[in-house]
Write a structure and sequence with these properties.
By secondary structure, the protein is α+β, with helices and mostly antiparallel strands. It has helices at about 1-10, 15-25, 80-85, 110-115, 120-145, 150-160, 170-175, 180-190; strands at about 30, 35-40, 45-55, 55-60, 65-75, 80, 95, 100-105. Helix 2 (about 15-25) runs antiparallel to helix 4. The chain has a domain at about 1-115: Jelly Rolls (Sandwich).
Length: about 200
C-alpha cells in the first residue's frame, strides 16, 4: 500500500531518502469497508488520508436530512474535512466510503511535523493545495453559471473513472442539480462512456 503512495509522490516531486523514511514512520495504513464512516458531524477531523484504493464522499446534512455532497475522493486523492483538520473544531460534515477502500493516514500532529521536517514534501502539498483551491473555485463558478449539460460533461471529464461508480443522486447533489434534471441530461448525452480528453485530477483532497 505504501509503495503506491511513494510512486504517487515521486510523480509530483523529488523526495530524499530521509523524507521517505519520515513519511513511512508517520503513516498508518487502514482498510475501510463500503458504507463505513471516516467522520461524522460533531467529530474533529484529526486525520488526513491518501486514497490508495476505493472512493469516498464528503457531505453535509441539512436540517431536513437532505445530503449535500461537497467533494469526492478517489485513487490518488486526499480526503479529510480540511476545515476541521486545520482548525481542530468539530466538523459539520460526514465522510463515507462508497466502496471498500484503502488509505494511508496521518494524524494532525504527525502531519504538522512532516511539513516542518520534509521541505520537499511540503512543496508537493503546497502545489496540490493551490490546484485544489483553483478547482474548487472553478466548480463554484460552474454551478452558478453553466448549464446542467456543461456541468455534467465537466464532471465526466474530471472524474472519468468515478461517474459510473457512484449513485446518481450523489452526482446530482455535487452538481447542484435535481435527480430528474441529471437523468434527463444523461439521456440526452447518450450516457456517454469515458471521454478521450481527461482533465488532470491533481487535487489535495
Amino acid at each position: 500500500m505504501f509503495a503506491s503512495f511513494v510512486e504517487y509522490l515521486r510523480e509530483k516531486g523529488t523526495l530524499t531518502t530521509q523524507e521517505l523514511e519520515l513519511l513511512a514512520n508517520a503513516s498508518v495504513q487502514k482498510r475501510i469497508r463500503k458504507n463505513q464512516y471516516l467522520l461524522e458531524e460533531g467529530e474533529v477531523s484529526d486525520y488526513i488520508g491518501f486514497v490508495v484504493k476505493g472512493s469516498f464522499c464528503l457531505f453535509r446534512l441539512s436540517a431536513d436530512g437532505e445530503e449535500y455532497v461537497m467533494r469526492f475522493a478517489i485513487e490518488n486523492w486526499w480526503i479529510s474535512d480540511f476545515t476541521s483538520f486545520i482548525s481542530g473544531q468539530p466538523s459539520l460534515c460526514y465522510i463515507e466510503a462508497l466502496e471498500d477502500s484503502e488509505l494511508i493516514r496521518f494524524t494532525k500532529e504527525k502531519w504538522d511535523s512532516l511539513l516542518e521536517a520534509a521541505p520537499n514534501f511540503k512543496q508537493i502539498i503546497d502545489n496540490l493545495t493551490a490546484r485544489n483551491f483553483e478547482a474548487h473555485q472553478n466548480r463554484i463558478y460552474s454551478n452558478i453559471s453553466e448549464s446542467a449539460e456543461v456541468r455534467y460533461e465537466n464532471f465526466v471529464q474530471q472524474y472519468p473513472t468515478l461517474y459510473n461508480r457512484i449513485p446518481l443522486y450523489m452526482i446530482a447533489s455535487f452538481l447542484g442539480l435535481t435527480r430528474e434534471t441529471l437523468s434527463r441530461v444523461r439521456k440526452q448525452t447518450g450516457k456517454k462512456n469515458t471521454p478521450t480528453i481527461q482533465v488532470s485530477n491533481e487535487h489535495a483532497g
